[in-house]
């Protein structure tokens, strides 16, 4: 039981799912990209597409891309701030098969050309779930430090990554592994009990067979 | 031991540990979340501060993105200040505080969801005017917030605090139940009276549907914060006088759950039934969306 689920969060209105959750989704997208977002294509699905404008979902998403949290009073001004800060964004709608009604697909690019694509849902009370990353299905809430590793599907990768975590004394809370095909591309989602240092993420990325490692703290 | 699956277990847990209810809720919540009790208390102080800031920073000129909401709290304030209120300055203060919160939420200001953003006005609308009238200290208000959270936790576990799941009874209704318990606490009632205040408030809004016009947290949500606060006040008055809910509080919450399950989807936040289905709402929807 958490009293702040009943009295809280402190947030910018009007809707915990359509506003606060939207900020959090975009903020997670920014963290998955590894920092500043230069270009964003934002595709709204379901109720986000239908009632998003009236709920400020659009401004909330841009605010999150700029690094704001869901209680930031500047959320309503995010479009103007994006123009000043050089974030180019474009909205559209999309029909995502089997997705939660409050879902969005974000295609983000960094100033150096790195790219990330995520599909995420706002599941109520400001809580979110990332459902797909760079086309791979997965599921995490970003409520605790999460390490996401994309690798070639070959023996030893899981052991190598968990070994590095163990060496730092970081306890693993949950561990998911998925792959697109045997011997193809695999993805690990590792929720941890302690903050993940950037140096650790770099070490993971340098392991053999690892294509990409990112973290959301 | 699960304490928050029923009001009976929650009150028994507090009694067993010989703690006042507010402190029992604080202790269990802190334990479950891995927070220290001190950190939890500080966060609750920030939460109270955020409610107060929202009330004080209310902008009478602000309008929601749709243009449908804003300025009503100010109209009421002016009427109360002119001495035109039927029910007097205290009730007038409660009503206008509820509207200030609800309007601020619709206008993308910073609010505290309690338990939801749409119902953010109910708890502050009873706590802040009560504190203005009785010069209540923040520490007492924070204790009252823990009491409210305890009852809210049981409502969430046993029924729902989501309009999409159970209709507005689970948002404004739940907030009114929580606020009634908080008010009974502040006014010196015992734990049984808090439970009965909560139950009476829940009974009075049972069946309230979630029918937002154009799907927005505006019509009728803002004004329902005012009626939620009034419900809390009247339920607390009754409970403090020793009046009990003839249906035990946990059974009331079970009934609320059953009613929520019986509500058709059109009356559960889809914006398709109730007020949202009226010709005027349909016309507004076609202009806005």
How is this structure best described in words?
The complex is a heterodimer of chains A (217) and B (289). Chain A is α+β, with helices and mostly antiparallel strands and 217 residues long. Chain A has two domains: 8-140, 2-Layer Sandwich (60s Ribosomal Protein L30, Chain: A); 146-216, Alpha-Beta Plaits (2-Layer Sandwich), CATH 3.30.70.260. Chain A has helices at 3-6, 16-33, 46-51, 57-65, 78-85, 157-167, 198-205, and strands at 10-12, 39-45, 88-93, 102-109, 115-124, 127-133, 136-140, 146-152, 172-179, 185-192, 210-216. In chain A, α2 (16-33) packs parallel to α4. The longest helix of chain A is centred in the N-terminal third of the chain and has 18 residues, at 16-33. Chain A is globular. With 289 residues, chain B is an all-alpha fold. Chain B has a single domain, classed as Orthogonal Bundle (2-methylcitrate dehydratase PrpD). Chain B has helices spanning 7-16, 21-33, 37-56, 72-81, 88-106, 122-134, 138-158, 163-166, 172-186, 191-204, 221-240, 249-262, 279-288, and one strand at residues 110-112. In chain B, α6 runs parallel beside α9. The longest helix of chain B has 21 residues, at 138-158. The mean pLDDT of chain B is 96. The interface between A and B is large, with 33 and 54 residues.
Entry keywords:
heterodimer; A: 217 residues; alpha+beta; 60s Ribosomal Protein L30, Chain: A; Alpha-Beta Plaits; 2 domains; 6-stranded mixed sheet; 4-stranded antiparallel sheet; 7 helices; globular; B: 289 residues; mainly alpha; 2-methylcitrate dehydratase PrpD; 1% strand
Note the topology.
The complex is a heterodimer of chains A (217) and B (289).
Chain A: H1 3-6, E1 10-12, H2 16-33, E2 39-45, H3 46-51, H4 57-65, H5 78-85, E3 88-93, E4 102-109, E5 115-124, E6 127-133, E7 136-140, E8 146-152, H6 157-167, E9 172-179, E10 185-192, H7 198-205, E11 210-216
Parallel strand pairs in A: 2-3
Antiparallel strand pairs in A: 2-4, 4-5, 5-6, 6-7, 8-10, 8-11, 9-10
Helix pairs in contact in A: 2-4
Chain B: H1 7-16, H2 21-33, H3 37-56, H4 72-81, H5 88-106, E1 110-112, H6 122-134, H7 138-158, H8 163-166, H9 172-186, H10 191-204, H11 221-240, H12 249-262, H13 279-288
Helix pairs in contact in B: 1-2, 2-3, 2-7, 3-7, 4-5, 5-6, 5-11, 6-9, 6-11, 7-9, 9-10, 9-11, 10-11, 10-12
């Amino acid at each position: 039981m958490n009293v702040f689920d009943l009295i809280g969060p402190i947030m910018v209105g009007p809707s915990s799912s359509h506003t606060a959750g939207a900020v959090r989704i975009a903020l997670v997208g920014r963290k998955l990209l590894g920092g500043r977002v230069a270009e964003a294509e934002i595709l709204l699905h379901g109720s986000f597409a239908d009632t998003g404008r009236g709920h400020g979902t659009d401004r909330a998403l841009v605010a999150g891309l700029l690094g704001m949290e869901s209680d930031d009073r500047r959320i309503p001004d995010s479009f103007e701030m994006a123009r000043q800060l050089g974030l180019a964004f474009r909205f559209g709608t999309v029909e995502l098969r089997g997705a939660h009604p409050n879902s969005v697909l974000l295609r983000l690019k960094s100033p150096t050309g790195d790219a990330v694509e995520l599909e995420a849902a706002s599941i109520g009370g400001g809580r979110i779930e990332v459902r797909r990353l760079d086309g791979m299905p997965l599921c995490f809430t970003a409520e605790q430090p999460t390490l996401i590793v994309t690798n070639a599907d070959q023996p030893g990768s899981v052991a190598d990554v968990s070994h590095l975590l163990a060496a730092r004394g970081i306890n693993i809370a949950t561990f998911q592994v998925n792959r697109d095909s045997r011997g193809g591309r695999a993805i690990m989602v590792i929720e941890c009990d302690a903050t993940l240092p950037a140096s650790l993420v770099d070490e993971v990325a340098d392991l053999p067979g690892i294509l990409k490692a990112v973290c959301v703290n | 031991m699960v304490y928050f699956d029923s009001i009976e277990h929650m009150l028994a847990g507090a009694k067993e540990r010989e703690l006042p209810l507010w402190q029992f809720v604080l202790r269990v919540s802190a334990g479950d979340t891995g927070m220290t009790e001190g950190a939890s208390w500080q966060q609750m102080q920030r939460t109270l501060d955020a409610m107060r800031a929202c009330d004080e920073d209310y902008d009478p000129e602000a309008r929601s993105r749709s243009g449908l909401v804003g300025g009503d709290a100010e109209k009421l304030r002016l009427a109360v200040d002119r001495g035109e209120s039927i029910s007097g300055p205290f009730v007038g203060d409660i009503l206008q505080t509820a509207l200030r919160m609800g309007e601020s939420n619709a206008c993308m200001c910073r609010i505290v969801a309690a338990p939801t953003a749409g119902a953010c006005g109910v708890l502050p609308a009873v706590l802040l005017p009560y504190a203005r009238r009785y010069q209540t200290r923040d520490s007492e208000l924070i204790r009252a917030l823990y009491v409210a959270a305890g009852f809210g936790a049981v409502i969430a576990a046993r029924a729902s605090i989501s309009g999409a799941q159970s209709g507005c009874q689970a948002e404004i209704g739940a907030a009114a139940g929580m606020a009634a318990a908080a008010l009974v606490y502040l006014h010196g009632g015992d734990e049984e009276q808090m439970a009965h205040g909560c139950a009476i408030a829940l009974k009075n809004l049972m069946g309230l549907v979630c029918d937002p016009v154009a799907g927005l947290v505006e019509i009728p949500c803002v004004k329902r914060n005012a009626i939620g606060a009034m419900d809390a006040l009247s339920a607390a008055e009754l409970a403090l006088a020793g009046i009990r809910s003839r249906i035990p509080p946990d059974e009331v919450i079970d009934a609320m759950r059953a009613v929520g399950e019986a509500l058709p989807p059109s009356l559960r936040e889809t914006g398709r039934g109730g007020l949202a289905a009226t010709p005027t709402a349909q016309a507004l929807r076609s202009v806005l969306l």
